[in-house]
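Issue: ligand-bound run for beta-D-glucopyranose - logging full I/O for the record.

Environment: standard queue, default settings, no custom constraints.

Inputs:
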Amino acid sequence: MAVRISEVYFEHHRLALGIGESEPRISWRFEGDAGNWTQDGYTIEILRASQSSPETFEIGSPDSSLVPWPTVSLNSTESATVRVKASGEGDHPDTVWSDPVTVETGLLNDQDWSGALMIAADRETEFNATHRPILLRNDFTLDSPISSARLYITAYGMYEAYFNGARVGTNVLAPGWQSYHYRHVYDTYDVTGLLLQGKNAIGIHVGEGWYSGRIGFETERNLYGDTLAAMALLVVTGQDGTKQYIRTDESWASAFGAVITSEIYDGETYDSRLEKKGWSEPDYHTTDGAGDWIGVKQLEAPYGRLFAPDGPPIRRIEEVTLKKMITSPSGKTILDFGQNLVGWLRLNVTGPEGQSIKMVHTEVLENGEVATRPLRTAKQTDNVTLSTEPLEWEPTFTYHGFRYVEVTGWPGETVLGPDSIKAIVVHSDMEETGSFECSNSLLNKLHSNVKWSMKGNFMSVPTDCPQRDERLGWTGDAHAFSPTANFLYDTSGFWRGWLKDAQSEQLARNGVPPVVVPNVPAVDNVGPTAVWGDVIVANPWNAYNSFGDLQDLEAQYQGAKAWLDTGIPRNEMGMWNRSVFQYGDWLDPLSPPEDAGAATTDATYVADAYLVYVTGLVEKMATALGLVDEAIQYQTAASDLKRKFIQTRMNADGIVQNETQTGLTLPLYFNLFPSAEQTAAAAQRLDNIIIANKYLVGTGFAGTHLLGLTLTKHNLTDTFYQMLLQTTVPSWLYQVVMDGTTTWERWDSLLPDGSVNPGSMTSFNHYAFGSVANWIYQTIGGLSPAEPGWKTTKVQPIPGGDITEAKASYLSPYGRVSSEWEVDSTGFHLTVVVPPNAFAEVILPLSGGTSQRVGSGTHTFEVPELADWVDVGQ
Ligand code: BGC
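Outputs:
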């Protein structure tokens, strides 16, 4: 196999069913060991469902990522089958045709919903209380044999749909959370296999979700509306080509089911005795026997803001087996899953009718009991009441962050153990792209913990935490973590959707992004803040670096500019107005438990440093977009701000206002010192501070993600290795040796004596400090994009610490690129694999920065001199 196309995809979709782009750009990845293979052209074959013969387009171009749709746009609901082959440059072989892949658009216009109504139960909604989930149902008859069927559906709340008793699709917590005021996602399902000619029934279960549930610390609810509702259109194409449309309308019926409450923070109460058996099957009578069905009423539909998803849906991704059962000091039964995870339990249980099982989910134990205090007002409690029948149960419209579950009321008839109870992990179903492993098992565990915190917090929006009464799209956290996220998973679609919301919210607030996206009233009063607001510049730029999508960058550029032009309140010098509130270097290790913002580095100093940085990023964006005048404008602004930073934040010797880890990291990383000498001196002082601090971390949210990158940039990689390998608090591995299985909000969420930090912000699943994985991939693994989109990879592993071997890989838009190295008594040995149509610039240790450019294939490199100065423990 010299070279083949391993995967063809459209825009940033893993599955291109019901997409919103009528001219979807096409990308393909390669596989194969062909050396120095480059593409000089490609052929795309497109067979539209409406045509009998394909169109073929031969294009002479090396591009294989996000190439333009070569023909007329797709109409609404139109599908096409696409395959691609690529021709090798010169005498390099061509690929064979890729497997055919289908792309299908969703409902591109409001009219395409063919009059579907947003329907709710015809009764008064709950006032200032949780909304009990509702069932909506209808019967319909299909006249002819079915060729294909699509369900388009969304809800005011979360939905699960059924046909004839069978669940539609695998999405959970659908349609996810968006800034529904601007963008309300609908999902598309292929339901051909669920329908029958003749009688059918459709059922939709709707819960409050983010739409009208309690969101944001206390009692706030009904953020977007106060009534649960759903809207659906079923389009059935008969074998004779006829189309039948079934839509939500006023002929539907509604009732309550067995779920009494299901709330994001608080959990679910379910009574199996209240199941309406057969409610989504035909021949179910809503009038006799099951008496409490009522009619429906129409709500205003979200026309004008209905969109196909950009990112993947939330799904059940994996199952975790029960590891241990504990009897607590007070005699409680506690399940330990061995992993702090996000999702819920699946029970298989039989017991006496009316028996209630209560499950309280927590991340940690304190004094041997489940520690509920860090959850603040979130209950994370499920209650299940049994009927006479065996029950397989999972909650529907809630999720929990937990490792431990206290169970009470478990019936004696079923053995409580791994066979009767499992943990189900759910998150946005992104493709895994990064892998890392090295000879240090603690670092491997840290990498795993970082990944688990990403899984737990990429829940349709990037949340701060998954367990307490918060779970909000905090922008500062997302800013710090995004480069790491972009290594671990293909986040392109995920960011694309979220950044659309960020920009919509921002542009409606004079260019000021809310501190959480989607915005919520609980924190709407927080004005513009650096680092958090800077997400509107940094994340589009980081995404562009990883995925190379200029179109996305262009879409996001407007928001980035608005932040600089109108969002940031300035003083007379054009720097941040110092009187506005700043989060600053949030949660640095010295911030006291009761005051997370009381950092050792001044918050306005942090803000000004970031201001220079993001102004420079907007200049880079403008340059990438070919906006020459604007690039000059922002370049001038950035140099001017840099001058003012020097003037106001440093003395003539380059001593900065706060000679702290963050205080020096920021100007060093952002190139803010006036001269090379002062830069070198500042790097030296940073090193000294770290050494004086016994290599322990001194940074919070603003500094941590840049600390390692800064030290490496200034040839202090050894110092950072030492920091990374510390195991006492505050350090990354402290959490690992304290049995952490995720990354924590605070450096010491768990105190050295095993007790839980007394602060009210004590999550065990926050990803911001896991941002160090970006450095791990770039420096230990040695991989980073040398140009946006990874056409060329920079491979520059820098060995250090006690690490004798490491390997990292990244599934780039071209295919998998990897590096693997080892140090032994004969030297440093590196193997680099580059996918076809891509390149690598390899910079070896001790090479003084000289790079060697290689094409696709497997390449090995040796640095024999390295054996002498690395202690490999032999
Ligand atoms: C969140 C953080 C967030 C912060 C704002 C907290 O409640 O959990 O992660 O960034 O507020 O500073």
